[in-house]
Amino acid sequence: MTALLAALLAGTVSMMGPSPLADLGHAPQWQSLPVDDQGEGWIDPTWHQQAEVDGRPVELVLVRMNLTDSDGKPMLFDAIMAVDCPAQTIGMKESWLFLSRYGDNRRAPITTIDMTFASTPPSIGDLALLAHACTGERK
Asked: Considering the entire predicted model, what is its pTM?
């Protein structure tokens, strides 16, 4: 039953609907995003903000991920990712967990943004985020 619920929830949330992290009334236009693990990823090119992390300007992008965690359990979440273009680093600013071992349908605020989220060298998913945030590939 849990697997069926996860599959139904993943299909519904992934294919349509706004992110709880975006402003009320925002209409996302989810586009496929390469992921490195088993699963799927999307990015909303219509959502974009800027912020500062440790005194440095960063681009903020909104992603939706449907993955399997390290324990083999399904994980579906939205995340606001912070991207430092000159340094080519990525951090997670905030997330909303639709389905995870940490709880379902809840906000997961992050108090300290660790800008070491990207792999070294950057993975295919990291490169896609960097391209979107840093090279004007946003729409």
From this structure: 0.83
